[in-house]
Amino acid sequence: MSLVSGPGKAAGCPSNQELCTQKHVEYIKNLDSRRDELEYWLTEHLRLNGVYWGLTALHLLGYPDALPRQETIDFVLSCQRDNGGFGAAPGHDAHMLYTVSAVQLLVTLDAVDELDKRGLGGREKIGSFIAGLQDKESGAFQGDEWGEKDTRFLYGAFNALSLLGLLDMVDVSKAVEYIKACENLDGGYGIRPGTETHAGQVFTCVGALAIAGRLDLVNKDRLGGWLSERQVENGGLNGRPEKLPDACYSWWVGASLAMIDRLHWIDSRKLTAFILQCQDSDAGGIGDRPGSMVDVFHTCFGVAGLSLLKFDGLQEVDPVYCMPKNITMRCLAP
Amino acid sequence: MAEHGIPRYARKGARTEEARQQELRKIEIYRELEQSVRERIALHQYTPETLQKISELLSSNPEYYTIWNYRRQVLRSEFARAESNGSNEAAAEQVAALIKSDLLFLIPLLKSFPKCYWIWNYRVWLLDEAKRLLPASIASRFWQEELGLVSTMLNLDSRNFHGWGYRRFVIETLREFKSAEQTDEDMTKAEFDYAKKMIGANLSNFSAWHYRTKLIQRLLNERSASDEERRKMLDDELELIHRALCDPFDQSLWFYHQNLMCVFDPTVAAHTMAPNLSDSDRLEYLRQEIEEIEDMLDGAEDCKYLYQALIDCTLLAWKVEGITPGDAQKRAVLSWLAELKKLDPLRQRRWLDFEQSLAC
């Protein structure tokens, strides 16, 4: 799977309001055949995320079998390191960001048992890699051994561990306290305590609270107000006040609103139209804005945004996990 | 993380055979370089040549996080070598020189890729190494110089949240280094002035307003400010925001206004600059606020934020008073709400939800 942007085309955006499903499926399926493009190699550090974005988009588009299952599983397992964590590609260092994608992929492919058969030490080994990244004092998580702390990693830890049924390996209540410390007066959350509210960080903090069963801690009306103000005149959503809209915020903002039951506070018709305008209707894929280069990241979050808005013909997405709802239901069933 | 704001260009499939061959050649060079770095690391060749290769690779691909980790390994090994040779003083000098040259290597990368998490992370790690390995007098100089870099970065993009987060981080560390004559309060005051300058340059800079909110609280706590002093600060802030709101269409200003109004909310006042106002004071402030905003309506009748603020202040006053509003009291709110519904069709259903909650 490549993260190569493009091919992209200067030709304008689709004037109609159709989702170019077939084109997107072909675009994603062909990403791995672009090894003659430099960018294929320059984006290797995102490969495992890219497979997750591609596979998730395909599932939501109704083409769950478009990527070869066994090859995909083999690739995921080939990214695991001795410490139990996963790197972006074989030989890349383990990091929370890729470990979460690996777990999400194995769950989506219904292949978690492969970990016990062929992985290094089964699911518990992954659990202990993640648990080892929690700071016992503050409850926060770092991304890898080098120490960067960010609420993205806390969410990632909760996401992966809950999918593996191992959430009790970490101190959930300490982590929840840390999220509380990241809350601002506008009801939103920052990357660390004291920092400005950012829609991406709102998603990670609200998602982590949803997994912990602590959405009662969210000031839903205040935060819902801030999130709904992310919608700008052209229907798209931005990540902070006075910034440009971007198709991926359809997901970070939309999913956060959905988790606090306020998704109807924005104009879904106009947001749908904005996402559709970001499509490349000739070559497939979705970009950040109309006329921008497409890539698999924006393709995934654009399609997931449309799924949140119940776009006709798409599979339902789980706003907490950004995975197909039927799969998380199956995985998390008691 | 991915492509942002890059315009689509002509279909790549249309590239000529010559262009394709050129790209293949570039791929070959890149992969050879990568291979050579990996081999050297696998053999633990932590040498200046390896560092040079790593620099080349990172310059062509600063997102390649594993290579940043390799760079840390090489640097750690060089630090250890420096420390095992010669006196403490000579060792410190060598370590400082290594750190200095590595910090310099990062500058052009940060300027070209200001949103790349891995570069910022690496820089923080490097400065932490300075703190770990060098005498405080030398380490603190490195940290002090970071303020200049952050200012440059924030001048290039005044909303870069990496830049703001980094600034906060640098200041926290400088507090640990501060000299005997410097107080925490001096440092907070200097930051407060910085945020003020940034707001002055662009009133819409919410990042700077946010920083201001945090700094005011800190400043008052460090001064052990009396309730009287806190009230004075609140009055000054209200005056400032009222003046700024001569452009009432600026969303950033209204979020700052919303932050200020939290002072009058008994349930969150404890986390604000003036936690101990009496309820009657709060009501008096809110009454004045409503009056002030009503005046702003003159000539800006189509500004939705004004109606929203009027509603928020009124609801807050009901909360402070602990009253269930009667029909007469609701009438004003309903009239503002009618304007909001007209002016803010995107959030129509938010306002309908609110209307319904009023009816209960």
Automatic annotation (TrEMBL), chain A:
Binds 1 zinc ion per subunit. The keyword Transferase applies. Gene3D superfamilies: 1.50.10.20. The keyword Repeat applies. GO terms for cellular component: Rab-protein geranylgeranyltransferase complex. Residues 20-323 form the Prenyltransferase alpha-alpha toroid domain. Pfam families: Prenyltrans. Catalyzes the transfer of a geranylgeranyl moiety from geranylgeranyl diphosphate to both cysteines of proteins with the C-terminal sequence -XXCC, -XCXC and -CCXX. Belongs to the protein prenyltransferase subunit beta family. This is Geranylgeranyl transferase type-2 subunit beta.
UniProtKB/TrEMBL annotation, chain B:
InterPro entries: Prenyl_trans_a. The keyword Transferase applies. It catalyses: geranylgeranyl diphosphate + L-cysteinyl-[protein] = S-geranylgeranyl-L-cysteinyl-[protein] + diphosphate. One of its GO terms (cellular component) is Rab-protein geranylgeranyltransferase complex. SUPFAM superfamilies: Protein prenylyltransferase. One of its GO terms (molecular function) is Rab geranylgeranyltransferase activity. Coiled coil: none annotated. Keywords: Prenyltransferase, Repeat, Transferase. PROSITE patterns: PFTA. Its EC number is 2.5.1.60. It is an enzyme of class 2 (transferase). GO terms for biological process: prenylation. Catalyzes the transfer of a geranyl-geranyl moiety from geranyl-geranyl pyrophosphate to cysteines occuring in specific C-terminal amino acid sequences. Belongs to the protein prenyltransferase subunit alpha family. This is Geranylgeranyl transferase type-2 subunit alpha. It comes from Aspergillus saccharolyticus JOP 1030-1. The lineage of its organism: Eukaryota, Fungi, Dikarya, Ascomycota, Pezizomycotina.
